[in-house]
Amino acid sequence: KQPMTMFSTLLFDLDGTIIDSAPDVCASINQTLSAMGRPPITVDDTKSLVGFGARALCEKTLAIAGKPGNEKDINFLLTGFLDWYRKNPSEHTVIFPGALKALSLFKDAGIQLGICTNKPEATCFPVLDALKLRHFFSSVICGDTLEFRKPDPRHIFHTLDDMGADASSAAFVGDSEADIEAAHNAGIPCVLVTFGYCHVPFDTLNADAIIDHFDKLDSALKAIAIAPDK
């Protein structure tokens, strides 16, 4: 069936939105922590630490894995983590249920799809390639592609520019406060998925729609598109 949304462009976050990558992020972090003589963190720890870029992840990890790290510790963990993750991008990572079907549906309908993620380029592209997702997206802008990242609205604007798309016909789909805040800051409608790595109560984020499965994305976008205040 044809999707009925009136949006011509859809932007997606990656981790916690399209893919459940926390197990691989956790494994890669723990490889380097072990080399540093530090205790491992859990997948649940990882879910609570991701979303703000790789450097922030490493800083927060060290604070809970023994003691806060200095600049040298952070750089060591960051380098080791990115290196390990680049080589092992998808061993334990899965695509969330319904995501492939939804992406195919929208793409086949001529809707332009893009990724705006705080994940660094070094790990984003290997994961997209390993899971055969890259062909869906006309643009992929990562957390270190630019000097700024979500929730800075320029991250979204740059992604739209890169796609040759207009903010007035775009919507954003994400799982975290950084995503929804970025969409609010950019003035575009947003859909929050509940199966990702959000760190605050969903209803505090004022997303335009909240969905618990990708099967509900099209109808959520449709409802947003015809809402009187949009």
Keywords summarizing the entry:
single chain, 230 residues, alpha/beta, six-stranded parallel beta sheet, two-stranded antiparallel ribbon, 43% helix, 12% strand
Describe the structure.
By secondary structure, the chain is α/β, with parallel strands linked by helices. It is 43% helix and 12% strand. It has nine helices and eight strands. It has helices spanning 22-35, 43-49, 54-64, 71-87, 99-108, 121-130, 153-163, 177-186, 217-226; strands spanning 9-12, 19-20, 94-95, 112-116, 139-141, 170-174, 190-193, 209-211. The strands form two sheets. It has a six-stranded parallel β-sheet, sandwiched between helices. A two-stranded antiparallel sheet has the order 2-3. Helix 1 crosses helix 2 (43-49) and helix 7 (153-163) packs across helix 8. The longest helix is centred in the middle third of the chain and has 17 residues, at 71-87. It is globular and about 55 Å long. The chain starts with 8 loop residues before the first strand and ends with a helix. The model has no long low-confidence stretch (mean pLDDT 95).
Layout of strands and helices, then pairs:
Elements (H helix, E strand, L loop, with lengths): L8 E4 L6 E2 L1 H14 L7 H7 L4 H11 L6 H17 L6 E2 L3 H10 L3 E5 L4 H10 L8 E3 L11 H11 L6 E5 L2 H10 L3 E4 L15 E3 L5 H10 L4
Parallel strand pairs: 1-4, 1-6, 4-5, 6-7, 7-8
Antiparallel strand pairs: 2-3
Helix pairs in contact: 1-2, 1-4, 3-4, 4-6, 7-8
